[in-house]
Design goal:
The complex is a heterodimer of chains A (288) and B (121). With 288 residues, chain A is of the alpha/beta class. Chain A is built from 11 helices and 10 strands. In chain A, strand 7, helix 10 and strand 8 form a beta-alpha-beta unit. In chain A, helix 2 packs across helix 4. Chain B has one domain: Rossmann fold (3-Layer(aba) Sandwich), CATH 3.40.50.2300. Chain B has a 5-stranded parallel beta sheet with strand order 2-1-3-4-5, with helices on both faces. Chain B is globular and about 30 Å long. The chains are: A alpha/beta (288), B alpha/beta (121). Chain B: It comes from Methylopila jiangsuensis.
Chain lengths: 288, 121
């Protein structure tokens, strides 16, 4: 590929997905796009770039974006966010939402579904406590391919051994050959939708909890600020944002402040424009 | 430093497991069957045991039952690590007192995840 081809791909990925491909990640272009070149019957990477430049093949463009995004995911990844969810977030929200008995959770880059299904398992284990409550999990990702896998609820033997305790595997999954399928009841707890965080996500409605972990690290500062600002507008003023262990909410003008005692947990500031409570009917009318 | 006993009749598996667990800062002993493992446990009870199921002389299931009846034998965290990957075997192992279960083949991520789950990391 010529330097111009590489520049084009970097700009293309930035515009389509917010992905910032720095010098140190450019080697990935070749390894991740080579399979697409083969599948599309193209002669080379420059031929792929030429096709993208022509703008005629939107499916190919989506394949390129999906190939370059990182979809690594584990059940209960990093542990702490899920303990924070059960020990800090859930008790506070259950006290604050006693009148509406409704909690809305958004997994903003859910990949193959391990994060929303981890939450579904935690909620299912508290079914008695949550009797009469409506807890909605909206799980979105840029990639249709990973969302299809997430919707299937079917995981490989390797995937169910990363972060998932064996007692939860036995309790919530059934074995299908060498794969494991999550229980239909848990699968129904999550709604999976295709969503590009660079586009308007206000139709999703207001959320009490947002998991946006290990996605902002792939964005440049301006994109990160934009996405965080818009997430802030979608959140209840007393809601919670969870970021990845290595992520922050930027500086003084951030729409979020860190929780005083829980690393990785953030709360909207008054300046975030966090949405005032709306009636449940109005909120859910938007997402159904 | 935590002490882990790796019990497997395959020297290759023992070597791979040793390399992974030493990388997690654990001291490793090895046994090629349940009988040898039981003798080692009677001499010094380890903190954790990575345990194969099918082995000559004494299999992992019998070893686990005998271990749990030894004085102090309820202390080690036992992680089965076996090709017996069906639900009935997993459930049977858990009922016998296993703490976690690894379905072979495994990698570093899986071993790390399971050892963290039982509190050995």
């Amino acid at each position: 590929m010529t330097p111009a081809d590489i520049e084009f791909l970097a700009r293309f990925l930035k515009e389509r997905s917010g992905l910032a491909i720095g010098e140190e990640k450019r080697y990935l272009l070749e390894s991740r796009l080579a399979p697409i070149v083969r599948r599309a019957g193209l002669a080379s990477l420059p031929a792929l770039v030429a096709r993208l430049r022509s703008g005629v093949d939107s499916a190919l463009a989506q394949d390129v974006v999906e190939a370059m995004t990182t979809n690594e995911s584990f059940f209960f990844r990093d542990g702490a966010p899920f303990t924070q969810f059960t020990d800090v977030i859930l008790p506070q929200l259950m006290a604050a939402r006693a009148a509406t008995k409704t909690i809305r959770i958004w997994c903003a880059a859910c990949s193959t579904g391990q994060e929303p299904y981890s939450l579904a398992m935690l909620l299912a284990d508290r079914a008695a406590q949550l009797a009469g409550w409506k807890v909605e999990i909206v799980a979105t990702d840029l990639s249709n391919e990973v969302l299809e896998r997430a919707r299937s609820g079917l995981f490989t033997q390797f995937e169910v051994q990363r972060g998932l305790p064996i007692r939860l595997l036995l309790k919530h999954f059934t074995q299908e050959g060498d794969r494991w399928r999550i229980a239909p009841k848990l699968r129904e707890m999550a709604q999976f939708r295709t969503l590009n965080l660079l586009r308007d996500f206000s139709p999703l409605g207001r959320f009490d909890v947002v998991f946006c972990r290990n996605v902002l690290i792939y964005f440049d500062e301006a994109t990160k600020t934009d996405v965080l600002t818009r997430i802030g507008r979608q959140m209840a003023p007393d809601g919670f944002l969870l970021l990845g262990a290595a992520e922050t909410v930027l500086g003084g003008r951030s729409p979020f402040k860190p929780h005083p005692s829980h690393r990785g947990l953030f709360m909207p500031t008054p300046a975030s424009g966090a949405a005032a409570p709306a009636s449940s009917a109005a909120r859910f009318a938007v997402v159904r | 430093m935590k002490h882990c006993l790796v019990v497997d009749d395959s020297s290759v598996i023992r070597k791979v497991a040793r390399r992974i667990l030493e990388g997690l800062d654990m001291k490793i002993s090895e046994a090629e069957n349940g009988q040898t493992a039981l003798t080692l446990c009677q001499q010094a009870m380890p903190d954790g045991i990575l345990l194969d199921w099918n082995m000559p002389v004494m299999d992992g299931y019998e070893f686990l039952n005998k271990l749990r009846s030894l004085p102090g034998g309820d202390a080690p965290k036992v992680v089965f690590c076996t090709t017996e990957n069906d639900v009935s075997h997993i459930a049977r192992a858990m009922r016998a007192g296993a703490d976690e279960y690894v379905m072979k083949p495994f990698d570093r991520e899986i071993i790390t995840s399971k050892f963290a789950e039982v509190g050995l990391l």
